[in-house]
Design a protein that fits this description.
The chain has about 325 residues and is mainly alpha-helical. It is built from 15 helices and no strands.
């Protein structure tokens, strides 16, 4: 019973944070798109049909009802929020297709490159950290530690164009565009993995190198335990908590990063769909995509908090600690 109360006290505030993030995300994007200069429906129709588009006022009123843009701002706000809670994200002004259906079609393509990017980035960060830990010379360790930050320094559009030029046009090993074959996801995933791996590396390597100076590692070294065993058995476990936290944050980064990568590689997905919606002033698609991405980001962070509760039961005491405090405690 005590465990149930501890879990309830720990999880209820997290669930409240999840709902707050989702509603706040929806509110922010609603305010932004509705307070831009001009009528959003007329702007979207002009972007679709050209600046010379002429629409009858009666037809315009009918279109407002069709796309859920009639009534006051409060009526639209609560009407869209209630409909979204029921799974209805409205109809695209540009295509006339339900936004839910558009997102369902594009979502698997974005998940494919985001998952591969996370796998490539995390694997390379762990491998480089291990090589730096096991390096016999200090200069080699410092050299390895300086490699991952290049992933953040180089913009995604530039690294993507370089990868296309080398592996698609020069060598012809991989396709440069499209999303219909499995190998078409490799170059976009590598492009996205460079900054993702660099961000993960900053937290993971710091945790590992700090744990390296711990007494238990000193004892293991004195006993003659091989570096690979010390790394996998002791250092990985101690670096797990801060690494899980940064993984949750990287999900949000991946959601934004797909917009650039999918545009560079002419690839279908949530990111490219969002760029097209912004250019067409299609506010129903913009609101729907941002709400879904925000909900996924909040859900991932909720799962991270639940994982924290399992990995370190001390975080459940008193409802857990804020993320930054937890990271600081590990440092």
């Amino acid at each position: 019973m005590t465990q149930v109360k501890a879990w309830a006290g720990y999880l209820l505030p997290k669930l409240g944070q999840f709902l707050f993030v989702v509603v706040a995300t929806y509110t922010l994007v609603f305010v932004l798109v509705h307070f831009l200069p001009g009528d959003p429906l007329i702007a979207a129709l002009a972007a679709k049909g050209g600046a010379s588009t002429v629409i009858d006022p009666a037809e315009l009123d009918a279109l407002r009802v069709q796309y859920g843009l009639d009534g006051s701002l409060w009526q639209q706000y609560f009407g869209h929020l209630i409909a979204a809670a029921q799974g209805d994200l409205g109809v695209s002004i540009s295509t006339g297709v339900p936004v839910t259906e558009m997102i369902a079609r594009a979502f698997p393509f974005s998940v494919q490159i985001a998952s591969l990017a996370l796998l490539f980035g995390v694997t390379s960060a762990v491998l480089i950290t291990f090589l730096a830990y096991a390096a016999p010379w200090p200069w080699l360790r410092q050299l390895l530690l300086q490699i991952p930050p290049f992933g953040i320094a180089v913009p995604a559009f530039l690294s993507g164009l370089l990868l296309i030029s080398v592996f698609a046009f020069s060598l012809g090993w991989l396709p440069s565009a499209g999303a219909r074959s499995w190998d078409a996801a490799i170059l976009p995933a590598i492009t996205l993995a460079l900054p993702v791996g660099a961000l993960f590396f900053q937290v993971f390597s710091s945790a590992v190198l700090e744990a390296q100076n711990s007494p238990f590692v000193f004892t293991a070294v004195a006993k003659g335990v091989p570096p690979r065993r010390i790394f996998t058995k002791h250092l990985l476990r101690n670096a797990m908590l801060p690494s899980i936290t940064i993984l949750g944050l990287l999900i949000g980064y991946l959601a934004g990063g797909t917009a650039v990568v999918e545009t560079v590689f002419s690839r279908d997905g949530i990111g490219r769909m969002t760029v097209n919606a912004v250019l067409a002033r299609d506010i129903n698609v913009i609101q729907g995509v941002v709400l879904v991405v925000g909900a996924i980001y909040a859900l991932v962070n909720l799962l991270v908090d639940v994982a924290y509760g399992f990995i370190d039961p001390r975080t459940r005491i008193g409802g857990g600690l804020p993320s930054r405090a937890r990271l600081g405690a590990k440092k």
